[in-house]
Amino acid sequence: MLFTIFGATGDLTAKKLVPALYALYMDEQLPKRFAVVCIGRRAYNDGVFLEEVREKLSGVYDKWEDFKTHISYYQMDFSNPEAYGDFEAFVRAQPQNESGDKIYYLATAPRFFPIIAKALIEHRLLTRGDMREKIVFEKPFGEDLESAVSYNRLLLESIEESQVYRIDHYLGKEMLQNIMMIRFTNKIFESIWNHENIEHVKIVAYESETVKQRGGYYDSAGALKDMMQNHLFQTLALVAMDPPYGLSDELIKNQKVKVLEHLRVESPIIFGQYDGYLDEKGIPPTSKTETFVAMKAFVDRPRWLGTPFYLVTGKKMDEKRAEIVITFKDSNCLFEKGQPDKNKLTIEIFPREGIILQFNGKAPGLVSYAMPMKMDYCHMCNVMGNSPEAYEKLILDVIHDDASLFTRWDEIENAWRVIDRISKGKQNEPLHIYKNQSEIEAVVRDYWGDKII
Ligand code: BG6
User: Fold this and answer.
1) 385, exposed or middle or buried, with CB in 10 Å at 0-12, 13-18, 19+?
2) For residue 326, which of 6, 131, 163, 273 sits 20 to 30 Å off, Cα-Cα?
3) What architecture is the 2-166 domain classified under in CATH?
4) Active site includes 231?
């Protein structure tokens, strides 16, 4: 297998791709003969590149010395179509090229997608119908609906849909894979999973990190395209979809698409930018790009009539935390003092993977009032070692031709439709500058009240 990463000097390679490949290597999940070719524009050699990657890795890498012999650096301006002649010769000369998979992983800004894909196709490094040749696109796929449509057209004119993998690594996360299990293997949840019983749903993805070295890409995306269009919308689709008619990839995606087709976002949308963003590398001094976004959305389908879905994501928050909180409506409480708190089902995605069910029960002792209680299940505690990282699972799926955890074109298309509408109205919304999490959360509270944050 020849695994080629375009844009390999970016954060993603050291943060996610190399650790995932290393874990697969340690698990003996990679083919015996494999090579990882890392393409970047910087004038590095193998040694310098590997040194830089190694410095960014955290955790135990006992077999790094062995593993690194499979990695090489290839300097090339991948935005220049002329450069692909030499690259083709290089690929054809690799012993791993003879048999096995060729996987091209585009970890670049989306504007490079058509250039790279076109050149690979023209040089017959990616040929229609050869299932050993596959191309993987980091999200976001495109910059807006128009560009995404044109990139997609370009691809499907020359290769099969089954050779295209549009990655959204949230779908590889253990607890996102768990959503369908929780919903469709429990009568107690699925029978009340609707607007009659659920008051609101909140999906949160907070990060403490800033944009770091990714300013060049991030400023053209912002939280709306970097996180909302993909990770949060995909999470929402899994939470809100109707039960599929079967468990095939196709049937599940058909139901997810219906959610995205009927997604309506209500005004106002809250945009924030962390204080100091304008001083980051690669950010224009007058940038109005949001690093925080919160929205109230509705899924206009019978199941969800009137149920708000609050979607919130931001960088430079006080904590890295991702979770889904389903808050149920009040019961018809017979007790004089009423129901102390609402029932809540929390699906924890990060840092803990777990499920918490909050309910009410009798307070202990000689009293006759209720108090909130929690059933707390720690998912990650039951896994030997760590549960696999999302990228590990997804790379393995690409190797095994399994696209079920990748996004289908119509999911992306519908997500862009919603985001394009929001982007158009964005300049009319205020941009709140925040120093920390509590400052921007106070803004959200002003709009939607305490129960959301
Ligand atoms: C990526 C975004 O897709 O997801 C990043 O581009 C973000 O900006 C990252 O930091 C968050 O992923 P995770 O798995 O670390 O929560």
Assistant:
1) exposed
2) 273
3) 3-Layer(aba) Sandwich (3.40)
4) yes
